[in-house]
Design brief:
The chain has helices at 31-34, 76-82, 128-135, 167-170, 223-226, and strands spanning 5-7, 13-15, 18-21, 26-28, 61-66, 72-75, 88-95, 118-127, 143-154, 157-166, 176-181, 184-185, 195-197, 210-216, 230-232, 238-241, 248-253, 259-260, 266-273, 280-288, 305-306, 308-309, 319-325, 331-341, 364-370. The protein contains five helices and 25 strands. The chain is mainly beta. It folds into two domains: 18-241, Oxidoreductase, molybdopterin-binding domain (Sulfite Oxidase, Chain A, domain 2), CATH 3.90.420.10; 248-370, Immunoglobulin-like (Sandwich), CATH 2.60.40. 43% of the residues are buried. The structure holds the ligand Nc1nc2c(c(=O)[nH]1)N[C@H]1C(S)=C(S)[C@@H](COP(=O)(O)O)O[C@H]1N2 and molybdenum atom (MO). Residues 47, 96-98, 203-204 line the site of molybdenum atom.
């Protein structure tokens, strides 16, 4: 993957995501943009199932209904008024559960995401619990089902984009009805005018073009809850919907196949993140030569080395890391990075394979040449 920076006005740089499919539009964040603490809105990956609906702001409504005592409908102004004084702004890693699927072996079916179905953006909005509490949650409610304005056909059936959250997560103060991304109103393709943002969960939870929130008294079984975005083992056993983001890292420098000079220091850099409220505790880097034994016999660089971590910009943001490496011998090398989170979870050498390739968090790697 190469960064696709395109000039856009004097002195400014605009990004274009890398298209994966055109109908509906799906695109990855370009590598160059992943190096930044915050991903520019015009570079952030896009995952759409049915295309972009264009609800006019003036006609937009959000209905809170189902197992509630006083169903309510708000328009955009009412939502903003309800949230005044309670608005939150959070830097949040957004990662599609299918990110990295194309790197799995054998390759599972699904969109061919490599490394770029991820980004970190600053979302601002109104905590959802304010509306839920106003609607009065029935004592037997177990989940909220969130509905987007987009709909289409799935295996021949008409469906809306709907996804559920257990009550505790729906009502968490950081679960937002987001109206802004990186300080600007949400762009249409990222869910304008309002989307859900659930920090620390795979981004399928972050329902775009949100128009409904319905409390239910039994677990939801819609297609995006019970058929898609579910871990299914190779023997066909389902293991629940994707949830918290698994610990993962990304190498943003050097670039694949970059030529490095022997005896010259190269800073290996990247980002690391984990979900479910867990922080990144450690990132280690290793250089392997072609026989996979480390950077060479007797080389002091052999083995895993701790990278320096930069403090993340918030509890749900990703962590920048760096490790200075001075290659001593010419040849092809594989640079590896692995992150460990505050619960002690570490990236595996091989991610456990599952039928649709979700949650792939294999150790990050990039191949370089030392001359
Ligand atoms: N309404 C709606 N919301 C949606 C989707 C969708 O197709 N429709 N895709 C989901 C998935 S699978 C992902 S990974 C994220 C992607 O968010 P983004 O396009 O803003 O990066 O949106 C989620 N929310
Ligand atoms: Mo996704």
């Amino acid at each position: 993957m190469t960064a696709s920076a395109i000039p856009h006005g004097p002195g400014a740089t605009a990004w274009a995501p890398e298209t994966v499919t055109t109908e509906p539009y799906n695109a990855q964040t370009p590598m160059g943009a992943l190096a930044d603490p915050l991903t520019p809105a015009d570079a952030l990956f896009v995952r759409d199932h049915f295309g972009v609906p264009r609800p006019e702001l003036a006609r937009w409504r959000l209905c809170v209904e189902g197992a509630v005592t006083a169903p309510l409908t708000v328009d955009y102004e009412q939502l903003i008024a309800l949230g005044s004084g309670a608005r939150r702004e959070l830097d949040v890693v957004l990662e599609c559960a299918g990110n990295g699927r194309a790197l799995m072996n054998p390759r599972p079916p699904g969109l061919a995401w490599e490394r770029g179905a991820v980004g970190c953006a600053r979302f601002a909005g109104v905590p959802f619990h304010l509306l839920a509490e106003r609607a009065g949650i029935a004592p037997d409610a177990v989940e909220f089902v969130f509905t987007g304005a987009d709909e289409g056909s799935f295996r021949g059936r008409p469906v809306a984009f709907e996804r559920a959250l257990p009550l505790a997560e729906a009502l968490h103060p950081d679960t937002l009805l987001a109206t802004h991304l990186n300080g600007e109103p949400l762009p249409p393709r990222h869910g304008a005018p309002v989307r859900l943002v659930v920090p620390g969960r795979y981004a399928v939870a972050d329902v775009k073009w949100l128009v409904g929130a319905r409390a239910v008294t039994a677990p939801f079984t819609g297609v995006f809850q019970a058929e898609e975005y579910v871990y299914i083992a190779s023997d066909g056993t389902p293991d629940g919907p994707v949830g918290a983001i698994r610990v993962k890292s990304l190498i943003t420098a050097p670039e694949p196949d970059e030529d490095l000079r022997r005896g010259t220091e190269t800073v290996v850099r990247g980002r690391a993140w984990s979900g479910g409220g867990r922080a990144v505790g450690r990132v280690e880097v290793r250089a392997e030569d072609e026989d996979g034994t480390g950077a060479g016999d007797g080389d002091p660089d052999t083995g895993w080395h701790d990278a320096a971590l930069e403090p993340p910009t918030g509890p749900y943001a990703w962590t920048g890391w760096s490790y200075p490496w001075t290659p001593r011998r010419p040849g092809r090398y594989r640079l590896l990075a692995r992150a460990t989170d505050s619960h002690g979870a570490t990236q595996p050498d091989h991610a456990p394979w599952n039928a649709q390739g979700y949650g792939c968090n294999t150790v990050a790697s990039v191949e370089v040449v030392v001359v």
